[in-house]
Amino acid sequence: MKAFAIREDGRDKDLAYLIYYEDSKRFFAELPDDADFWETPLLFSSLLKKGQKTIGPYWSKLWVQQRIVPPDRQNIGQILKENQLTEYDEFTLLVLADGRCAQDDYYLSPVSAEFLREKFPDRYQRKAENVAALNNRRLLVSFRDGTVRKCDVASLKREDQRFAPILREPELFARVSILPGGYGAVWGNNLIVDDLTLYTSGETIPLRMEDLVLFVSNCVINSAEAAALLECSRQNIDNLVRRDKLHPIKTSPKNKLFLKSEVLQRNWS
């Protein structure tokens, strides 16, 4: 993760913060709690007017793209060569110019991740940490503050036609993952439910994240542990699965996971 304050020449004030996650190549932005509409960079100010202070990857990337040479520039090959780049990279081009462009006086100044966590403690506590797809197009989401919430995506995104395929197909819906930094839940690259929406619209479940961790630790076992409980070989466990006598809750090429309760019931029968 790389983080920068967005500042303006002649002013000693952070107007916004740009965050970049290298592995996923995603940008996000955070606006100060006291952000002023007239001072905020133009693209972000339109979102601030709607009450947004956390800016998602689409608008953050668009802000970056407005400040760097576009990939279809006629002499882009020469520009990359002059900057000792072998391929087009938005983040590298942005940093090489300190985030500056000819249209305004904004520039980037590096800050630490710890600085941002201290500046926005409430926001960072609302970031998502884990997500699991449930039946009926719902998500079970745990957050950094330890809370667990159940979120009805069907209700939230029923009118958004981009979400129609995943709301229609359970297998697609199950492919949900967490955005870098916990900024929300995502399907593919662009179908996103942001962290604040998940946090504020979700139904609070009377469990803490540590409760779920303890449940998994105590109630989920692998093939070797199942074999030890039943005093048999792993081959026998695989045979029970093939005969539909045991039902793994997750299967990988090298292992299977089971609910301990179902394995124990084999000893009761």
Summarize the structure.
This protein is α+β, with helices and mostly antiparallel strands and 269 residues long. The protein has helices at residues 42-48, 57-65, 76-82, 90-96, 113-119, 121-125, 153-157, 164-168, 170-173, 195-201, 209-219, 223-230, 234-242, 260-268, and strands at 2-8, 16-21, 26-30, 54-55, 106-111, 128-133, 138-143, 147-152, 177-178, 184-187, 191-194, 203-208, 220-222, 250-251, 256-259.
What can you see in these coordinates?
This protein has helices at 42-48, 57-65, 76-82, 90-96, 113-119, 121-125, 153-157, 164-168, 170-173, 195-201, 209-219, 223-230, 234-242, 260-268; strands at residues 2-8, 16-21, 26-30, 54-55, 106-111, 128-133, 138-143, 147-152, 177-178, 184-187, 191-194, 203-208, 220-222, 250-251, 256-259. The mean pLDDT is 93. The strands form four sheets. The chain has a five-stranded antiparallel beta sheet. A four-stranded antiparallel beta sheet has the order 6-7-8-12. A three-stranded antiparallel beta sheet has the order 9-10-11. The protein starts with a strand and ends with a helix. It is of the alpha+beta class and 269 residues long. The chain has three domains: 2-121, no CATH class; 126-201, NE0471-like N-terminal domain (NE0471 N-terminal domain-like, 2-Layer Sandwich), CATH 3.30.2020; 215-268, Arc Repressor Mutant, subunit A (Orthogonal Bundle), CATH 1.10.10. The protein contains 14 helices and 15 strands.
